[in-house]
Amino acid sequence: QLQLVESGGGLVQSGGSLRLSCVASGFTLDYYAIGWFRQAPGKEREGVSCISIDGGTTNVADSVKGRFTISRDNALNTVYLQMNSLKPEDTGVYSCAAEKISQDLDYPDEYCGFGGMDLWGEGTLVTVSS
Q1: Residues 6+ apart with CB under 8 A from 42
Q2: 10: alpha, beta or left, given left = phi > 0 and alpha = psi -120 to 50?
Q3: Engineered SS bond to 48: which of 1, 12, 36, 81, CB 3.0-4.6 Å?
Q4: Closest Cα partner for 126 from 30, 35, 48?
Q5: How far is the C-alpha of 64 from the C-alpha of 62, rounded, in Å?
Q6: pLDDT tens digit string along 32-80?
Q7: What is the three-class DSSP state of 59?
Q8: 10-13 and 124-129 as β-strands: parallel, antiparallel, unpaired?
């Protein structure tokens, strides 16, 4: 059974911090780029940040640049999203997703993006109070 399970969400005041975790079970993340997404109430889901297999390439949405940091520990089969200086507009359900990367690419370990995700977690709720 292939699963991604998020944790670390909760209620936090504006300016506070949270660290989200995404743990894979039933498979290894060694061949997967990972993305974090969020969906605010009444809005469509958007990509927040993604990270390549080797951890060296990251992309961050403009709305969270300078505040959010994505990282991964392949040995622990885990990806993290450190969220600092949180704002009320950061409120939403945060989900992680895994994209299997073809080893036929020129630089398969260095790619990440927000499309073509193969497996999704259920999400964890982040609420930022004003």
Answers
A1: none
A2: left
A3: 36
A4: 48
A5: 5
A6: 999 999 999 999 999 999 999 999 999 999 999 999 999 999 999 999 9
A7: strand
A8: parallel
Take residue 56 and report the two structure tokens written for it. Answer: 């060296």
- CB distance 105 to 33 below 8 Å: no
What is the DSSP annotation of 77-89? TEEEEEE-S--GG
pLDDT in tens, 7-35: 999 999 999 999 999 999 999 999 999 99
Question: 32 with 53: CB under 8 angstroms?
Answer: yes
Structure tokens at 23: 């743990």
Residue 3: predicted pLDDT: 97
